[in-house]
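This part of the workshop introduces the protein records we will be handling. Each record describes a single protein and holds just a pair of labelled lines. Instead of coordinates, the fold is spelled out as a row of discrete tokens. To make this concrete, we reproduce a full record directly below:
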Amino acid sequence: MRARLLALVLLLLLAGCSSGGTRDDDGRITLRFQSLAWQEESVEATRKLVAEWNATHPGVRVEYVQGSWDSVHDQLLTAFEGGEAPDIIHDASDDLADFAYGGYLADLTDLLPARLKSDIPQRSWQTTTFGDGVYGVPFLQEPRVLIANAKWLKRSGVRIPTPERPWSWAEFRRITGQLSGRGKYGIAWPLKEPVSATLNLSLSTGGQLFHRGADGKVTVRFEAADQVVPRTIRAQATTDRSASPTTLGSGGSDTLPGFFGGRHAMVPLGFSYRQQIVQQAPKGFDWQVLPAPAGSGGLTQGVSPQTLSVAEDCPHKKEAAAFIDFLLRPENMVRLALGDWMLPTGGRALKDPALRTPEHGWATGTALAAHLRPAPAQTVRGYPEWKDKVATPALQEYYSGAIGSRELRERLEEDGNLVLARYQR
């Protein structure tokens, strides 16, 4: 009797520690896939692909679980620590470092097929490589572009930039000044979350901000190349009056009513915002996609691709990796990219004619794909805390004119390095 009781207790304990990847009584494996797709088209595309997998792989069933970008980091951390993480995890590469170094994600180096490894360029794999391991598959990415009122720009007579002949940052500042006046603005910067926009665009001017020493430790240095973009934005908002001061604390979607209403000539947004513009723009509104300004680094900008990872606690990692491979076949990657209005990382998918049409600026986006590089903070441990507690408030105050360049530098470097040091002992 005692032996039977002990066996029952052990069984219950094992069940309580399960984090998915279960095997049914008939031997079928069930894997939980947490997706962060949120736009109607992307949710539909992802759900259809899951259904297609289940229809053709009776031995491995994938259960679709809906997650949210708003809370994914804290939700995953709680799930990891509680032993209840999903088996297959949709996230972004700049959120993976702490999870990878913390031992929560599986190393996919020996689990992924050669086809997938070769189709995605090495610069994209760098976003999910931590130490000697690969902890996610980067599959969707979006450059930051300028969405412009085409009629406004045409009437003004300014030179229209192309990926082959982009504006410089100095020319961009001058042109936004020419487009402004009488209560209208050349640009509306939505900087509620200013860090990624500032850091990623600063790669075009040679900015780096995070510097890794020979000992592997990272320090923050806010140097001249890092200052070109933030100084341009601040000058537009506080000196030139060519950037709307009311949008500095806004999100991207908040700028669209003013854009449609003729208050702002241009809005810098992620490539995927084009879907909202197509859905919400007034009938006859003429808009176009322009490349972001270029600096000494050309059109280079940082991106943090969307990723697919496997939980370290998943007992069926081989099957989970097989599902990822299925989801990211070239034709499926195109479906996911079209659903999210983003660019695929895969070289074969990028060649698809559907992603190279001039309509809605697809061709401009694909022309920028070769210039996308890992975001500066990709492998920096402690980045989420540095961003939330140090960089976001400091940049918000700087852009509003509340603090100057010297104080911004001191806060990013001195306060920032204190935060990062706690993660690098």
